[in-house]
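The data are quoted verbatim here:
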Amino acid sequence: MTEKGLVIITGGGRGIGCAIAKTLAHDGYTVAITYTKSPDVAERVVREIAESGGRAKAYQANVTQPAQITALFKDAIDELGPLYGFVNNAGVTGERALIADQKPEDLQELIATNVTGSLIAAGEAVKHLSTKRGGKGGVIVNISSVAARLGGLPGLVAYAATKGAIETFTKGLANEVAREGVRVNAVAPGLTDTEMVTEETAEKIGEHVPMGRIGKPEEIADAVLYLLSDRASYITGTTLTVSGGR
């Protein structure tokens, strides 16, 4: 298996992040994944990648803690090699409630993770990738959601708003670093079959998707893989929707 360089993935222990880590590792990338409270889950992913012939390591890092993000990049690069890419995957849905019923502290936590944390982590990636800052260039992929365009499921308007911010950030950062050898894009999944989605929700939402089903984590991961690859060398500032037509 040809090694293609290091990709750091925040929140890579479960769901879409896990699928991204396995897909990239299978394609020859070295991957570093993060966890906040579940080291056993993250280490299981690392073991599965190693058993398949890939190279991976898990790090504890919370995107709401800038010092932990700085340490993540330093440690991963020191231990696994030069950075090629970064996948901004860590995120939360927040409290499911109408905007009028949302508590300020819950909104602050949601924004701290999905927006502020994502901006800080991407900024740290730029420090290591930018040719202007001594890097060799590379790729950043932010994980958004079709909620950014559709407004979100009932009670998840605040979550949708954070993903809208991510898509604006993707375009702006892409413009900012395009001449520094860094491409920045986003993937916007539709509802995807993870442990966070009940069978009832999957069936209900699937009825309204033109393709008649919700997505698989591996389908989202394939889109990330494409955007990281040289096949997407002239693509930046773009959000790729993977939603079965929704």
Observations:
- The first helix runs from residue 15 to 26.
- The mean pLDDT is 95.
- The beta strands are 6-9, 30-35, 55-60, 83-88, 138-143, 182-189, 239-242.
- The helical segments are 15-26, 39-51, 66-80, 104-129, 147-150, 157-177, 199-206, 217-228.
